[in-house]
Amino acid sequence: MNRILRIGTRDSRLAMWQANLVKDELEKAGISTEIVPIKSDGDIDLVTPLYAMGVQGVFTKALDSVLLSNRIDIAVHSMKDVPTQLAQGITQAAVLKRASHKDLFVYKTDIDFLNDEQSIATIATSSIRRKAQWLHRYPNHSIENLRGNVITRLKKVADSNWKGAIFAAAGLERIDERPANAIELDWMLPAPAQGAIMVVCREDDTDAREKCALLNDSITALCAKTERDFLSTLMGGCSTPISALAEVVNGTLHFKGSIHSLDGKDFITAETQCPLEDAANTGISMGKEVLQKGGLNIVEAIRNATR
Hints:
Radius of gyration: 19 Å
Number of helices: 9
Order of helices and strands: EHEHHEEEEHEHEHEEHHEEEH
Distance between the termini: 53 Å
CATH architecture of the largest domain: 3-Layer(aba) Sandwich
CATH superfamily of the largest domain: Periplasmic binding protein-like II
Shape: globular
Low-confidence stretches: 42-55
Number of domains: 3
Mean pLDDT: 92
Oligomer: single chain
């Protein structure tokens, strides 16, 4: 009898799109599936800033629970939302080919003010990483919290007096909601694993792991691991402005990572290139370099500020 893989997912439009992508790819391989939507803590509380909710895995814990209780067989996540340390009993089964890693600025009327780094404006985002990088570039701007699913956030921008808001390009593009009044922020480093989709399963479910392995993109998996190793080395989470990007170009891994202070004034970066055969520990070594260059002081200051 052909096993039906139960795919757990958050019930937002974007999360359902991602789960259906996994479903379609598995069914192309002749694997029967069904989708099981689950409400996460991050979807229920739409007011509190993500960095103030006090827990890692705010979007993944509910799915971890139903996976470990055998109510689903695999779970699909935006990889940037997944803690670097997976829950005990859960393992990575696949990383799908990455979409855009970039951040977008969706603006209300114009972007002329962006040419003046001393301009005064109000921008919206729930990401402490985006906030820190934005304030570093535009120190006179103020940041408003913006929560909710993609459509809700776009509506809030349209109804507000903000100059605009920052979104992940992949999230808007996957559900065909990227507005015309949006520009890519080429200067902004993304969250580790932004644009990648992770599939997880129970450690003891060899069958599910083998089936999901058919979907794995090795290059994306390597780049995402490098970025998440950097994050983990810096002891970062949703309350720490840590950014990282690893890309493979002509057989060479290119990496750049950074940590900012909460107000964006201070930052430390590290950057390197290496052959793929030497890339395994790049994220860890770059994280240690950032700590040695002064990143540890930023980490400790953030800890003291968020206690």
